[in-house]
Amino acid sequence: MASAYSFSVVVVAWITYVLLYGIYFNPVHDFAEASQSPTLQLEAEALLETRWWLRSETDNTSSPCKWAETNFRGASRALEIGTLSNLSYLNLPYNSFTGELPHSLANLTQLEELDISHNNIVGTIPKELRNCKSLRTLNLQSNNLIGQIPDMLSSYVSLKKLLLSHNHFTGSIPKRSLFDVLSNNAKVVEFDWNKRVNVIKGIAHALSYMHYDCILTIVHLDISSKNILLDSKLEAIVSDFGTAKFLDLDSSAQTLLAGTYDYIDLELAYTMRITEKCDVYSFGVVVVEILIGRHPTELLTSLASSSISQNVMLNEIFDKRLPPPTRQDAHDIFLVATMTFECLHAKSKSRPTMKSLSQEFLAHKKTILAKPLDAISFWQLISQEVEMVVSGRET
What we know:
Layout: H1 2-25, H2 27-34, H3 38-48, E1 52-53, E2 65-66, E3 69-72, E4 75-78, E5 89-91, E6 97-100, E7 113-115, E8 120-123, E9 137-139, E10 144-148, E11 161-163, E12 168-170, H4 178-183, H5 193-213, E13 217-219, E14 228-230, E15 236-238, E16 245-247, E17 253-254, H6 266-271, E18 273-274, H7 277-292, H8 297-305, H9 314-317, H10 327-343, H11 354-362, E19 365-369, H12 378-383, E20 388-393
Parallel strand pairs: 1-5, 2-6, 5-7, 6-8, 7-9, 8-10, 9-11, 10-12
Antiparallel strand pairs: 3-4, 13-16, 14-15, 17-18, 19-20
């Protein structure tokens, strides 16, 4: 009798425990009850202030998890990612996210790392993502994204890592060339005189390195405005080495004519003999293009025929889409222009080397023009009849 009574007590206790656990200790029940409580509201507000979203808190490989909400074992609570304005890192790889990238990601202007790789995201990369200019890492690989890679990726100044493989993108990786910038009337104003002079110097330093500092001399043979890329800071990058050749400066080498027609050295076209001076001529054409804002076809024709009017002033030739250069910019422009037209000499032996040009640019001479640019004619420039006072070197 006593044993039967004891058994009954144990059964009743066990049933009571199960019922209590199911009602009061079930996590889903807790979450559902808490969703109506002020405590959860406080937690949600605290989440908005965080700058880190741990992957361990978002892993959910058991069933698809849509962007619109975050699921916890059947219970859900809406969470708009775009409201996390202070978020720096958003790492959500290896989940089962579906749907398109939310346009509200554009609100995450402090975001430095975005990793949504290895999910089932579809659609295109939203253009609004251009607002996330602080991004250092963008990892979208192994999804089902489509469309062209947007040009706005070139606006990411701090981007160090870009992973887009295993998607269904079309077209080429976007690039911004010098030609593109000069052809864009809306944005060319950003390419001011100071930036243009820096681009010219950058190209000169790059070509000098290729000609004189590599183990084997490299001649590019296709320097043009389309093959000079500009990064997000409008600094020059020499690209497209498809026609480049190694050159022994002590030997005579010949080649088939290659390169962009309007930039080819005329002497190379006649002789087919490769020298580093081929790049010097093309560099001169590109520099004039930067200064006047378009390819200098007419100007080069006038130079070749010696039919330049002595009454054409420099300010009439330079790119009129920009405001007149400052006094210091005018000095730099005149110095660059003076050396540039030496690069366009018909005889290659009369042209300067890229090394001498690079060293001249690095010298940082303080020069003062005796006249303003609007009082100097183009004829005086190429004849080097303008007096320049050198006041010393910058320290």
